[in-house]
UniProtKB/TrEMBL annotation, chain A:
Source organism, top-level taxon: Bacteria
Transmembrane annotation, as ranges: 16-40, 52-80, 142-162, 190-212, 224-252, 264-281
Main location per the UniProt record: membrane
PANTHER family: ABC TRANSPORTER ATP-BINDING PROTEIN, BRANCHED-CHAIN AMINO ACID TRANSPORT SYSTEM PERMEASE PROTEIN LIVH
Protein name stated in the entry: Amino acid/amide ABC transporter membrane protein 1, HAAT family
Similarity comment text for this entry: Belongs to the binding-protein-dependent transport system permease family. LivHM subfamily.
Listed GO MF terms: transmembrane transporter activity
Organism: Aromatoleum tolulyticum
Lineage: Bacteria, Pseudomonadati, Pseudomonadota, Betaproteobacteria, Rhodocyclales
Subcellular location: Cell membrane
InterPro entries, A to Z: ABC_transp_permease, BCAA_transport_permease
Membrane topology value: Multi-pass membrane protein
A Pfam family that the UniProt record links to this protein: BPD_transp_2
Keywords annotated in UniProt: Amino-acid transport, Cell membrane, Membrane, Transmembrane, Transmembrane helix, Transport
Biological process according to GO: amino acid transport
Automatic annotation (TrEMBL), chain B:
Protein source organism: Aromatoleum tolulyticum
PANTHER family found in the cross-reference section: LEUCINE-SPECIFIC-BINDING PROTEIN, PERIPLASMIC BINDING PROTEIN OF ABC TRANSPORTER FOR NATURAL AMINO ACIDS
The protein, known as: Amino acid/amide ABC transporter substrate-binding protein, HAAT family
Family annotation (InterPro entries): BCAA_transport (IPR051010), Leu-bd (IPR028081), Peripla_BP_I (IPR028082), TAT_signal (IPR006311)
Domain Leucine-binding protein, first and last residues per copy: 35-373
């Protein structure tokens, strides 16, 4: 591998890692702050991608699709929290797994009924459809770079939200002691609803953003679910910062695993996870 | 209380009488010409649901064209959704064989499930017709007198592509596929023909199924600069790969080839990115054959949609079974004669007539097709009457 190829592979891994972070950040929030094991997280990602597909087909514009899609996702997040998840906080993990697994099946069936089982593509917006020549044969789509920029921006916004705002303070407090926060007169139910809505929206947004490059197909959510849990476990449950570092590490392991040891490419990520867990059983970063 | 009890007793006794009356009637009803019991074990939910439906439609169309009968006998269908779940396959197959007592088992799409079905069929000596799954083993090591296939083996389209790419003067080729048996068998078939014709596979790359993060491989391909790339993916993976390949700017400098699955049922999603791509398969969307045209018209009339290669394979499964039944006048008890007739039948398929190899796999023409405006259009015959080598089959 020459140096320029190496640099391009670095770019690949960075870009993949950032997208992973975007999907997994919602999971780490819901898992870390609310203590809910949400197996349906991948379904929210799929929901986002299908929204991007159908809303782009309706409106002809990905940006409009994303704005409407985000609004819908917030609404769906709030509704699900109110109707189902708010009943789970006091129950054990087994009940949570049961409910969220059921949700996977329901979301898949709804997808099948509403949109069908065909594979679809979402067109890349005109403005971002160019590509940059990297080597004499390879060029890089601008849209992929745009995705990375959006992911970085969102990481900064989330960091600011959780570290430097009043809401963030309440969220952090709520995750360490629910009862005490409630005793101090903060509406913890509302905080949880917001966190859950945020988690769902992040996953759906990741799906919408990725739809033009990933295409839209049945079962796409299950593919990201497992890797998202790996991100959360490596990064440390509930740590957004940890999720970012973990996602970037996984991007590196996956990309270079595929290049250096293609026969064992599937293993690279899990070897990384095992190594991190031996070194730090609670993940790289512990809390938010 | 007393009254209610009486009423309940009254209801119970009348129900008993009604039931008693109904009972003797049942055998009389069943004593007419016994129906042929056809077990359809196909995916009706999940990723392959549309394929399962197309196969079922094709099968039923062939039966309906024969007046709802095969070999002069009425048909009764028993359906099981196999969910493309290999773990449930033996149980599902046994449900149809033991509970429903089917005369023939038809299925399925997913190779893992079909391999399990082939094993059950061997154990129970049930007649099995595979209308899609391409695992080489089904008509290889697992071949049996009672196991037939009306689709293809993984080896066939890829082997034909090896010859095509050598003819097109490509010398150094990189292959890329998912690392599971169908992907590996496709690459092996391609490599066999391509290297025999003097080409060289520079690098075989695999990624874990169903991973779709292709960017590292595209970078690798750009660095290796081969003359061409041979690729196998299907469904969502095929859509994403073809789009990524075009977006990476590789399409103009390094042509992309593959077996037909890369561009079948995926063109809507691939859009412009697939335009002009060459693939090989035993079917093309615009075959200039009378049978293909009449089939398309009949299928459209019955189901209000265009048939695909899966519908053709389902249709041919019924035709093959009909050929066997016709020989024995619908008496499935004469198994040996029936199988003999099926083995020697010439199936007038919408893909072009085919016969069966010794291992019961179609000996068929493989077509070179070109993607033009959301259709896989016929270009030429890539391999005439290509027979799978049936390695490991002792029959």
């Amino acid at each position: 591998m020459d140096f320029s190829t190496f640099l391009i592979q670095l770019l690949n891994s960075f870009q993949y890692g950032l997208l992973l972070f975007l999907v997994a950040s919602g999971l780490t929030l819901i898992f870390g702050i609310m203590g809910i094991i949400n197996l349906a997280h991948g379904s929210f990602y799929m929901m986002g991608a299908y929204m991007a597909f159908s809303l782009t087909a309706l409106s002809g514009n990905l940006l409009v699709a994303i704005i409407v899609g985000v609004a819908l996702s917030v609404l769906i997040g709030f509704l699900l929290e109110w109707a189902l998840f708010s009943r789970l906080y006091k129950r054990d993990h087994l009940d949570q797994v049961l409910l969220t697994y059921g949700l996977i099946l329901i979301f898949e069936e709804l997808r099948s009924l509403l949109v069908g089982d065909d594979v679809h593509g979402v067109p890349i917006p005109e403005l971002l459809s160019a590509s940059i020549q990297l080597s004499e044969t390879l060029s890089y789509p601008v849209y992929r770079l745009f995705m990375s920029a959006v992911c970085i921006l969102l990481a900064i916004v989330m960091y600011w939200l959780i570290r430097h705002t009043r809401l963030g303070m309440m969220i952090r407090a709520g995750s360490s002691n629910r009862e005490m926060v409630q005793a101090l007169g903060i509406n913890i139910d509302l905080i949880y609803r917001i966190v859950f809505g945020l988690g769902v929206t992040l996953a759906a947004f990741a799906g919408m953003l990725a739809a033009p490059v990933s295409s839209v197909y049945p079962g796409m959510g299950n593919q990201v679910l497992i890797i998202c849990f790996v991100v959360v476990v490596i990064g440390g449950v509930g740590s957004v910062w940890g999720a970012l570092v973990a996602a970037l590490l996984i991007g590196l392991a996956d990309t270079f695993g595929k290049v250096i040891a293609p026969d064992y490419a599937g293993l690279a990520v899990y070897v990384l996870m095992a190594a991190v867990l031996l070194w730090r059983p609670e993940g790289i970063f512990r809390r938010i | 209380m007393e009254q209610g009890f009486n009423r309940r007793r009254f209801l119970l006794s009348t129900a008993g009488i009604a039931g008693g009356l109904a009972l003797p009637a049942a055998p009389v009803f069943a004593q007419g010409a016994k129906k042929i019991r056809v077990g359809l074990m196909l995916p009706y939910t999940g990723t392959y649901a549309s394929l399962g439906t197309a196969i079922t439609n094709g099968f039923k169309l062939a039966v309906d064209e024969g007046g709802g009968k095969l070999g002069g006998r009425e048909i009764e269908y028993f359906t099981v959704d196999d969910e493309s779940d290999a773990a449930k396959a033996p149980e599902n197959a046994n449900k149809l064989i033991k509970r429903d007592n089917v005369d023939v088992l038809v299925g399925t799409v997913h190779s893992g499930v079909a391999l399990a079905m082939a094993r059950v069929a061997r154990e129970t000596n049930t007649l099995l017709i595979v209308p899609n799954a391409g695992a080489d083993e089904i008509t290889g090591p697992l071949c049996a007198p009672n196991i037939f296939r009306t689709s293809f083996s993984a080896w066939q389209p890829s082997y034909a592509m090896g010859q095509v790419m050598a003819d097109r003067k490509h010398k150094n080729v990189v292959t890329l596929a998912w690392k599971y048996s169908f992907g590996e068998q496709s690459v092996a078939g391609f490599k066999e023909a391509f290297e025999k014709a003097g080409g060289k596979v520079v690098k075989e790359m695999y990624l874990p199924f169903p991973n779709v993060e292709f960017q590292p491989y595209l970078t690798e391909i750009a660095a290796l600069k081969p003359d061409a790339v041979f690729v196998f993916f299907s469904g969502g993976g095929a859509v994403k790969f073809v789009r990524d390949y075009a977006a990476a700017g590789l399409r103009s400098s390094i042509p992309l080839y593959g077996p037909g699955f890369v561009t079948d049922g995926t063109l809507e999603g691939q859009g412009e990115a697939a335009e002009g791509m060459l693939t090989t398969l035993h079917y093309a969307d615009n075959l200039d054959l009378p049978k293909s045209k009449s089939f398309k018209a009949a299928y459209f009339k019955a189901f209000k949609m265009q048939p695909d290669v899966f519908a053709v394979q389902g249709y041919d499964a019924a035709q093959l079974f009909a050929a066997g039944l016709a020989q024995v006048n619908g008496d499935v008890g004469k198994r040996a004669d029936m199988i003999k007739a099926m083995e020697t039948a010439t199936i007038d398929s919408p893909r072009g007539a085919f016969t069966l190899s010794k291992a019961h796999n179609p000996v068929q023409d493989i077509y070179l097709r070109k993607v033009e405006g959301k259709e896989n259009k016929f270009v030429s015959v890539a391999a005439k009457a290509l027979a799978d080598p049936a390695r490991g089959c002792r029959m």
